[in-house]
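Attaching the record inline, Q. Sequence:
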Amino acid sequence: MRLFLQQHPAGHESPRFVQLTLQPDLLGGWVLLREAGQVGGRSTLRRDQFLDQPSALKALEAARDAQLKRGFQLMFARGSDAPA
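Structure, as predicted:
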C-alpha cells in the first residue's frame, strides 16, 4: 500500500511531499516506510517495524491523519485496501 501526500508552498519554494508505504518484510512482519522532503530536493527515509498488519495499518492511518492536519493533501493512493 502506498500513499503520496503533497503540501503546496507559500512562496517560490518547491512543494513538500510525504510518501507512506506499507509492505510485508521477509520475516512475516510489516514495515512502514515514511519518506519526506521537497520535490526535486533531498528527502529523509524512516522505517518502522511491526509484528502484525493491523498495528502497521493503524500506524499508517495515524501518520496520514497527522499530515492531513498539517495541510498536506492526498494526491495518490495505491493498494488493495488503501485508506480513503
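The longest strand covers residues 16-24. The longest helix spans residues 53-69.

More tomorrow.
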